[in-house]
């Protein structure tokens, strides 16, 4: 169940990045970061992966 929530966050973040809705993206990514901090308690690998994906998306899509 948690994975589905995380996945939907990523689709939202990627969509907002494409649409250049930077302010909403910042809110979504901080929500995502908070969720990832919850996850660090049980799975450090998933935490690292989940944290890396939006950073790399933002890096490659940055103007």
Structure characterization notes:
The protein is an all-alpha fold and 63 residues long. It has one domain. The protein has 3 helices and no strands. Helix 1 packs antiparallel against helix 2, helix 1 packs parallel to helix 3 and helix 2 packs antiparallel against helix 3. It is globular and about 35 Å long. The N and C termini lie far apart (35 Å). The mean pLDDT is 71.
Task: Label this structure with key terms.
63 residues; mainly alpha
Layout of SSEs?
Elements: H1 2-18, H2 22-39, H3 44-61
Helix pairs in contact: 1-2, 1-3, 2-3
Could you give a short description of this structure?
By secondary structure, this protein is mainly alpha-helical.
Structural class: mainly alpha
pLDDT < 50 runs, ≥5 residues: none
Report the principal-axis shape: globular
The percentage of residues in β strands lies in: under 5%
Our Rg estimate from Cα atoms comes to: 11 Å
Major sheet: size, sense and barrel closure? none
The helix/strand order is HHH
- The count of strands amounts to 0
């Amino acid at each position: 169940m948690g994975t589905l929530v995380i996945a939907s966050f990523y689709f939202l973040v990627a969509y907002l990045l494409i649409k250049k809705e930077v302010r909403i993206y910042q809110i979504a990514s901080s929500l995502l970061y908070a969720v990832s901090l919850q996850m660090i308690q049980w799975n450090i690998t998933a935490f690292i992966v989940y944290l890396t994906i939006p950073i790399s998306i933002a890096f490659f899509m940055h103007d």
